[in-house]
Amino acid sequence: MELGLQGRRALVTGGSKGIGYAIAEELLREGAAVAVCARHAEELSSAARELEKLGAPVVARVADVTQAAEVEELVETAAGQLGGLDILVNNAGRAHPGTFATLRDQDFQADLEVKLFSQVRCSRAALPHLRRGGAGTIININAIYGRQPDPAFFATTVDRAACLALSKALAMELGREGIRVNSVNIGFVRTPQWENIHRLRAPELGLEQFLAGVAEPEVPLGRFGEPGEVAGLVAFLASSRASYISGASIDVSGGMGRYV
Ligand SMILES: NC(=O)c1ccc[n+]([C@@H]2O[C@H](COP(=O)([O-])OP(=O)(O)OC[C@H]3O[C@@H](n4cnc5c(N)ncnc54)[C@H](OP(=O)(O)O)[C@@H]3O)[C@@H](O)[C@H]2O)c1
């Protein structure tokens, strides 16, 4: 399928590894110009070098999406160097395990900054550029826990529900301007985030054994997803082939999610 992403300009937050890296790679393969950010400079520049092997320059900027000033600077740099912005992928985020009993106010607040306010601020900063391009689009990477509460990931559950509401309401507010907003909700995808969870929760198990044990009872397809299995959908949603899709909330979860 020809996606028509040639020459489109995309910013992917959290593009140094995991799902964000795979999205940046997919967009580059489709001919888009790409900017990425992350907090850790070395990891980011080595990711950018790897991505540039696909044959196009990549704008890589160190930025923490929880810091308003850094977000402003990131978006201006990305738009400046790419010559505008058509696609924003709000991907940067993290897992934050914990129950209601263990989480303090500051844990909820920190998690809201990473998940909700990063999407709010990046979207706000990107909007003037998306408007100028004429067919801008925002894709928010969220979690199915925003739809199916899990008290073991209490902050994620609460904060991703807010992110889903943000995506929908923003799609409604921006629709008349021709700007599409969609949410992609992840179940379990094998990334460095899960390597951290493995180290914290069950270092005595091998990684494969740990992941299989997590997926087996929860995921109808019986396995973790791979980042590339998310990236294809994101590229499609970013493209003109998805020109009538806005306000959608699409799971990439191997069937996980006990709701209709
Ligand atoms: N993998 C899953 O199973 C899963 C499930 C549900 C939802 N998700 C969501 O999917 C997204 C990607 O997750 P992933 O599994 O690919 O995670 P990952 O492997 O940990 O990668 C996260 C990326 O985001 C960056 N990042 C994290 N915090 C940031 C911040 N404050 N400012 C700027 N960049 C930041 C990281 O780089 P630095 O550390 O250098 O900043 C990295 O590039 C996240 O929003 C996550 O919550 C993933």
Account of the protein in words:
The chain is of the alpha/beta class. Helix content is 46%, strand content 15%. Strands 3-2-1-4-5-6-7 form a seven-stranded parallel beta sheet, with helices on both faces. The protein starts with 8 loop residues before the first strand and ends in an 8-residue tail after the last strand. The model has no long low-confidence stretch (mean pLDDT 97). Bound molecules: NADP nicotinamide-adenine-dinucleotide phosphate (NAP). NADP nicotinamide-adenine-dinucleotide phosphate (NAP) binds at residues 13-20, 37-40, 43, 63-66, 91-94, 114, 141, 143, 186, 188-189, 191-194. NADP nicotinamide-adenine-dinucleotide phosphate is lined by residues 13-20, 37-40, 43, 63-66, 91-94, 114, 141, 143, 186, 188-189, 191-194.
Fill in the keyword field for this structure.
260 residues; single chain; 8 helices; alpha/beta; seven-stranded parallel sheet; binds NADP nicotinamide-adenine-dinucleotide phosphate; 46% helix; Rossmann fold
Can you say what the CATH homologous superfamily is?
NAD(P)-binding Rossmann-like Domain
**Count of helical stretches:** 8
Query: Which strands sit side by side, in order, in the main sheet?
Result: 3-2-1-4-5-6-7
Rg on CA atoms, Å: 17 Å
Straight-line distance between termini: 29 Å
Fraction in helix: 40-55%
Overall geometry comes to globular
Low-pLDDT segments, ≥5 res: none
Bound molecules: NADP nicotinamide-adenine-dinucleotide phosphate
Q: What's the overall average pLDDT, rounded?
A: 97
Number of domains: 1
How large a portion of the residues is in β-strands, by DSSP E? 5-15%
Q: What is the name of the CATH architecture?
A: 3-Layer(aba) Sandwich
CATH class bucket? Alpha Beta
Report the CATH topology name: Rossmann fold
**Biggest sheet, in brief?**
7 strands, parallel
The strand count comes to 7
What order do the helices and strands follow? Answer: EHEHEHEHEHEHHHE
Helix-strand makeup class = alpha/beta
